[in-house]
């Protein structure tokens, strides 16, 4: 059982990293001291939990939709400070944009790797 979990983490490290990033994002309002700011805090909590759930789902049984969900959430994290009006809160904005770049990059890399794996299996 443990080797199966280790094998999945080794093969799907990008999803594991996105899970950690999702948990970080959900907890970051308290860690970075912007929990009193309702809009950015709730944005971080909700989006962080969804990113973590999608990443965990991808670890259990990989499906491309989980990566597309995280890619869309990453795009939302980039624009949300400006659309929701908290772009003047530097810690929240910077945190959400950095997490967005990392989550989006890892999700797209997972998609690319799955496409490469599918092509290799067909050959």
List the helices and strands and how they pair.
Blueprint: H1 2-11, H2 13-31, H3 38-60, H4 64-83, H5 90-122
Provide tags for this entry:
single chain; 123 residues; mainly alpha; disordered C terminus
Task: Describe the overall structure.
The protein has 123 residues and is an all-alpha fold. The protein has one domain. 85% of the residues lie in helices and 0% in strands. It contains five helices and no strands. Helix 2 packs antiparallel against helix 5 and helix 3 packs parallel to helix 5. The protein is elongated, with a radius of gyration of 16 Å. It starts with a helix and ends with a helix. The C terminus is likely disordered.
Structural class: mainly alpha
Radius of gyration: 16 Å
Total helix count?
5
Detail the poorly predicted runs: 117-121
Shape, principal axes of CA atoms: elongated
Order of helices and strands: HHHHH
Distance between the termini: 31 Å
**Main sheet overview:** none
> Strand fraction band?
under 5%
Instruction: Give the strand tally.
Output: 0
Task: Give a concise summary.
The chain is an all-alpha fold. 85% of the residues lie in helices and 0% in strands.
């Amino acid at each position: 059982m443990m080797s199966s979990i280790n094998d999945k983490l080794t093969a799907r490290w990008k999803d594991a990293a996105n899970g950690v990033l999702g948990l970080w994002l959900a907890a970051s309002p308290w860690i970075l001291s912007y929990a009193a700011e309702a809009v950015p805090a709730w944005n971080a909590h909700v989006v962080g939990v969804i990113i973590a759930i999608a990443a965990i789902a991808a670890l259990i049984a990989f499906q491309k939709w989980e990566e597309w969900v995280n890619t869309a959430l990453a795009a939302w994290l980039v624009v949300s400070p400006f659309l929701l009006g908290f772009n003047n809160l530097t810690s929240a904005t910077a945190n959400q944009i950095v997490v967005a770049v990392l989550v989006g990059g890892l999700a797209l890399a997972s998609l690319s790797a799955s496409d490469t794996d599918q092509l290799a299996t067909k050959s």
